[in-house]
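Data card: per-record layout.
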Amino acid sequence: QVRLVESGGGLVQAWVSLRLSCAAFGSTFCYYAMGWFRQPSVKERRFLAAISRNGLSTSYVDSVKGRFTISRDNAKNALYLEMNTLKPEDTASYYCAADPTPIRHQTVLYTSEYDYWGQGTQVTVSS
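The structure for this 127-residue chain is written out next.
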């Protein structure tokens, strides 16, 4: 099992940048495909970005392409989400997730495929 802990959220103004981190504990991090999701209040959790086990493949939802960048450092057991040009509609709880897939180059896009989740970090963007 892996335990995930997100950090880096907060209250920011629109158009600034913010980097979220997700630290992994308790298992071999490079065995997991990773993803970021977000959940605005009273709405369902939705996929944002995914990265393969080896970090060579990434996928994004269209609404964040070009603004958000997912990356990972397997040596540090860490996942990141760099968010640029933040907008009020980016306000949400952000979650990282891990899927123990055997495929090193594959990204995982669907909520149901992830086995482990962090507790979330809140990002609030003011206009």
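Known properties of this structure: The mean pLDDT is 95. The CA atoms of residues 12 and 118 lie 22 Å apart.

See the next section for split statistics.
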